[in-house]
C-alpha cells in the first residue's frame, strides 16, 4: 500500500531539515513494514508559493488539504506585505485544525534546567481555533476600538474599559471546548493513562476559562461516565479527571510532573505550557506536534524558520524527524515510531549533535543538519 502524505517544505531552514528528515522517516517505515510505503506529494505555501504562484497560500494547497487525512509541514514565515497575519493561523482556521497535540518527554543525555526531566511524560491537547487567537482585536485609538468601547459603556454599562484602550475579544464556545476535551479523553483512555487535567484560569475569567473547565467535566461525565472518576472520588482502574488553575499548573509541572499525563487547555494556556514543558526537558528544538481536525492530521515542526541560520547546514532536523514518528504511530506503525525515537536517543547519547543541542550535551561534537540526519538514519 502506498500512503499519500502531503508535505509543505516551509521557509528558512525548511528545505534542509526536510532533506535530512524524510529519508529517516521512509527508512524507519521500511524496516518495520513490508506492505506500506509513503507517497510524498508536495504542496506549496510560504515564500516558495509566493514566488511560483503569486500567493503565499494558494487555493490549490487548501483544496488538497481539505480532502487529505495526513500532511506534514516545515516552518512558515509570514511573507511581508501580503496582508496575511500568519500563515499558520490561516491554515489552522481554514482547515478547522482545532486540536494542537504535543507530546513532551525527555531524551537521556540532554542536560536540562531541572534535576529530574525524566519525570515529565505528558501530552498536551491545546484548543487551536478560539480564545484570544481568534484575531478579534482593535488597536488603541482606532474608530473600531472607540465604537466597541462606546457600546460597552452605553449598552452594557461597562465603565472599566478606558476610552483609549486597545481591546480584544476572547471567544470560547461549549462545542469548541468539548470537542478538544473529548479528543484528549479518547487519547488518555486508548492509551491507558492515569489522569487528564483541565488547565484553566477560571478563577479570574469565569465565563470563558471557567466555562472551559465546566464543559470539560461535563463532556467527561456525559460521554465517558463509567470510564472516568474525579480526584475527590477516585475509582481504581478509571481515568482521573482533575483541573488546575493555569499558574498553579506551571508550579506543578516543575514540582510534581509525574502526577500529570494529559493536559487539556484553552489556546493561550496551551501555547505557554507546551513551550515551558519542552524547555524543561531540554527539547525545544526537538519538539514535534500535530494539528488535527476531524479529518486531517497535520504534523508540524514546532519551531520557526530560524532565518539567521537558514541555508548553512546548521539547523536541527529533529523536530520534523520526531513528527514522522508521531505520524507513523497514527498510521498504525508504533514499532517504526519507536525505532525513530530510539535512533534520536542514540544520536544524543553518542554526543554528535547539531549546535543548538550541543549546549545541552556535555562533551558534544557539533555536526551539521545533514550529518545529524545521517547519524539518526544509521541508528535506525
Ligand atoms: P524560531 O523558532 O525560528 O527561532 C528561535 C531560535 O531558535 C533562533 O535562535 C533559531 O536559530 C533557533 N532555532 C529554531 N529552530 C531551530 C532548529 N531546527 N535548529 C536549530 N536552531 C533552531 O523563532 P522566531 O525567530 O521567533 O521566528 C522566525 C520566523 O518563524 C517568524 O517568521 C515566525 O513567524 C515563524 N514561525 C513559524 C512557526 C511555524 O511555522 N510553526 C512557529 C514559530 C515561528
Ligands present = 1,4-dihydronicotinamide adenine dinucleotide
- What Rg is obtained from the alpha carbons, in whole angstroms? 22 Å
Order of helices and strands: EHEHHEHEEEHEHEHEEHEHEEHHEHEH
Average pLDDT reading:
95
Low-pLDDT parts are none
Shape: globular
Query: Which strands sit side by side, in order, in the main sheet?
Result: 2-1-3-13-12-4-5-11-8-10-9
Class from secondary-structure proportions: alpha/beta
Percent of residues in β-strands: 15-25%
Descriptive key words:
alpha/beta; 13 helices; binds 1,4-dihydronicotinamide adenine dinucleotide; two-stranded antiparallel ribbon; 380 residues; single chain
Explained architecture:
- It is a single chain.
- It is built from 13 helices and 15 strands.
- It is α/β, with parallel strands linked by helices and 380 residues long.
- It has an eleven-stranded mixed sheet, sandwiched between helices. Strands 6-7 form a two-stranded antiparallel sheet. Strands 14-15 form a two-stranded parallel ribbon.
- The chain binds 1,4-dihydronicotinamide adenine dinucleotide.
- Residues 13, 75-78, 88, 285, 300, 303-309, 315-316, 319, 356 line the site of 1,4-dihydronicotinamide adenine dinucleotide.
Amino acid at each position: 500500500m502506498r500512503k499519500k502524505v502531503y508535505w509543505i517544505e516551509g521557509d528558512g531552514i525548511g528545505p534542509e531539515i526536510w532533506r535530512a528528515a524524510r529519508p529517516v522517516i521512509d527508512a524507519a517505515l521500511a524496516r518495520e513494514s513490508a506492505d506500506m510505503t509513503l507517497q510524498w506529494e508536495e504542496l506549496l505555501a510560504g515564500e516558495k508559493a509566493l514566488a511560483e504562484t503569486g500567493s503565499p497560500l494558494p487555493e490549490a494547497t487548501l483544496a488538497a488539504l481539505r480532502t487529505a487525512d495526513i500532511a506534514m509541514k516545515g516552518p512558515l514565515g509570514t511573507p511581508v506585505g501580503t496582508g496575511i497575519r500568519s500563515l499558520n493561523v490561516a491554515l489552522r482556521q481554514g482547515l478547522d485544525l482545532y486540536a494542537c497535540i504535543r507530546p513532551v518527554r525527555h531524551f537521556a543525555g540532554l542536560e536540562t534546567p531541572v534535576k529530574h526531566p525524566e519525570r515529565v511524560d505528558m501530552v498536551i491537547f491545546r484548543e487551536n481555533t478560539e480564545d484570544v487567537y481568534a484575531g478579534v482585536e482593535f488597536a488603541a485609538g482606532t474608530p473600531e476600538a472607540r465604537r466597541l468601547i462606546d457600546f460597552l459603556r452605553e449598552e452594557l454599562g461597562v465603565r472599566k474599559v478606558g476610552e483609549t484602550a486597545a481591546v480584544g475579544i476572547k471567544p470560547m464556545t461549549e462545542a469548541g471546548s468539548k470537542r478538544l476535551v473529548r479528543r484528549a479523553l479518547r487519547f488518555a483512555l486508548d492509551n491507558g493513562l492515569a489522569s487528564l487535567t483541565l488547565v484553566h484560569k477560571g478563577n479570574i475569567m469565569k465565563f470563558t476559562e471557567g466555562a472551559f473547565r465546566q464543559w470539560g467535566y461535563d463532556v467527561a461525565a456525559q460521554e465517558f461516565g463509567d470510564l472516568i472518576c474525579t480526584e475527590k472520588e477516585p475509582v481504581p482502574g478509571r481515568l482521573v479527571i482533575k483541573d488546575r488553575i493555569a499558574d498553579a499548573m506551571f508550579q506543578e509541572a516543575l514540582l510534581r510532573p509525574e502526577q500529570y499525563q494529559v493536559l487539556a487547555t484553552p489556546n493561550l494556556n496551551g501555547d505557554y505550557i507546551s513551550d515551558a514543558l519542552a524547555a524543561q526537558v531540554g527539547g525545544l528544538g526537538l519538539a514535534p506536534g500535530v494539528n488535527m481536525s476531524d479529518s486531517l492530521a497535520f504534523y508540524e515542526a514546532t519551531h520557526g524558520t530560524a532565518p539567521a541560520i537558514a541555508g548553512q547546514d546548521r539547523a536541527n532536523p529533529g523536530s520534523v524527524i520526531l513528527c514522522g514518528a508521531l505520524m507513523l504511530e497514527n498510521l498504525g506503525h508504533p514499532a517504526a515510531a519507536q525505532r525513530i525515537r530510539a535512533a534520536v536517543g542514540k544520536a544524543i547519547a553518542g554526543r554528535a549533535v547539531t549546535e543548538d543541542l550541543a549546549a545541552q550535551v556535555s562533551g558534544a561534537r557539533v555536526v551539521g543538519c545533514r550529518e545529524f540526519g545521517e547519524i539518526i538514519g544509521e541508528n535506525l
